[in-house]
UniProtKB/TrEMBL annotation:
GO molecular function: metal ion binding; methylmalonyl-CoA epimerase activity
Keyword Metal-binding: yes
InterPro entries (alphabetical): Glyas_Bleomycin-R_OHBP_Dase, Glyas_Fos-R_dOase_dom, MMCE/EMCE_epimerase, VOC_core
Name listed for the protein in its UniProt record: VOC family protein
Species, as recorded: Jiangella aurantiaca
Cited Pfam families: Glyoxalase
Record's keyword terms, sorted: Metal-binding
UniProt-listed Gene3D superfamilies: 2,3-Dihydroxybiphenyl 1,2-Dioxygenase, domain 1
VOC domain location: 6-144
PANTHER family per UniProt: BLR5325 PROTEIN (PTHR43048:SF5), METHYLMALONYL-COA EPIMERASE (PTHR43048)
Superkingdom: Bacteria
SUPFAM superfamilies found in the cross-reference section: Glyoxalase/Bleomycin resistance protein/Dihydroxybiphenyl dioxygenase
A biological process term (GO) from this entry: L-methylmalonyl-CoA metabolic process
Amino acid sequence: MTCVKGFDHIGITVDDLDLVTTFFVGLGLEVEGRTFVEGEFLDTVIGIPDSRTQMVMLRPPGGGTGIELARFVRPRHEPGSPAAMANELGLRGVVFEVDDLQAAVDGLAAGGYGLVGGIGQHENTWRMAAVRGPEGIVVSLAERIG
């Protein structure tokens, strides 16, 4: 039985919507839209009565799978662990394919964002690195080399 028709977006709850949006725009994503959402639809879907969020949808140039950033106006967000490591349960990162891994890492470092570990190479196929961005969000960058 196949239920999934496609993969539209990943949702990330954040505190500083502008800071995190700027981070992802710096990686090359584009803002598709920004809005507030509240009411019966949101309350039903997330199971939190009387909720209100401000959301930004980002997508790669030309479309594709997006990232939905949401900041809760009410109720306030619950703090997570911004230093979570890869072995902690839950979504630990998002992976983007890049043309030049070193340039991408250098650009993020200039913005104050550092590597979680180092730059690794898998056989002669991929070079990859994980960077911890704002609010502890981990993005992995992968460059196809083979």
